[in-house]
Amino acid sequence: MIYVSQDQLDQVEYLIRQSIQGNHVLFDSDTVRDVFLSLRSDASGFAVQDAYGVEHHIERLISQPSLAQKRAYLERLDRDTYRKVVRTYFNIVENNLFESGEARH
Length: 105
Known about the structure:
Blueprint: H1 6-20, H2 29-41, H3 48-53, H4 55-63, H5 67-75, H6 79-100
Helix pairs in contact: 1-6, 4-5
């Protein structure tokens, strides 16, 4: 378990709210599109071990103090790890959406 400050929690909640609205401020649009397309074509889905494999990257991403530093951290990742982080992030967003019970279009 990691310690998350109130400021970090506020940042994560902001990012999730933005993503729910379709504003994916952490990721470039080409990657978002590629990941979503791969979700449709990948019948096996996203393996739990993939999410656990990038968990420390998600934690480090959260710990970055600014949006620019979060993006810079992501840019240093190799392509495969970056895509797994994006998929894991969107799984988190999706779970948050389902748990909130918000209406979806």
